[in-house]
Amino acid sequence: MTIRHIAKAIFTNLSLPPEAVWRFYRKRAVLENKIRELKWDYGIDGFCMKKFFATEAAFRLVCFAYNLMQGFQRAIGLRTKKTLGIIRSLVLACGAELGRDGHKLVLRLSAAGARKERFREYCARIFDWGNTDCVAVGSG
């Protein structure tokens, strides 16, 4: 097993102890990762408007969507943060058909096996639907 040490250097004009300088710049690195995620998952780098306030409104809407998805991940009980693409394929992308069961409006989902069980667990955490079989979910 080979251990390699990577030398790092931070050039700054801050007059803080080395550990405090490292902590200060580390926070910026976390923020840059969030900006990168907003660019890749939510497309914030492609909506520049002619008016500044329109661009700001679009950016705030994207930030709201990002925060909403973070809350959604907490609500369904994901232990680690996932990207929007993973959430889409893991939870949201599921074929469905709106139909009737007698006089009751139902949503039939095309989930089977482990995916069906995971989807049922997520639904139970978000909605208080009681005992559903995830084949026909009532409209309320």
Q: Can you describe this structure in just a few lines?
A:
The chain is mainly alpha-helical. The protein contains four helices and three strands.
What does this structure look like?
By secondary structure, this protein is mainly α. It has 2 domains: about 20-85, no CATH class; about 95-140. It contains 4 helices and 3 strands, in the order αααββαβ. The protein has helices at about 20-40, 50-75, 85-90, 115-125; strands at about 95-100, 105-110, 135-140. The protein has a 3-stranded antiparallel beta sheet with strand order 1-2-3, with no helix packed on it. The chain is elongated and about 75 Å long. The termini are far apart.
Q: Regarding quaternary structure, how should these chains be classified?
A: single chain
Shape: elongated
How helical, in percent, are the residues? 40-55%
Q: Kindly provide the radius of gyration, computed on alpha-carbon positions and rounded to a whole number of angstroms.
A: 22 Å
Q: Estimate nothing, just give the exact number of structural domains.
A: 2
Helix tally equals 4
- State the total count of DSSP E strands: 3
Question: Into which percentage range does the β-strand content fall?
Answer: 5-15%
Strand order of the largest sheet: 1-2-3
Roughly how many Å apart are the termini? 59 Å
Q: H/E order of the elements?
A: HHHEEHE
Q: What are the segments in which pLDDT stays under 50 over at least 5 consecutive residues?
A: 134-140
Structural class: mainly alpha
Mean pLDDT: 79
Summarize the main sheet: 3 strands, antiparallel
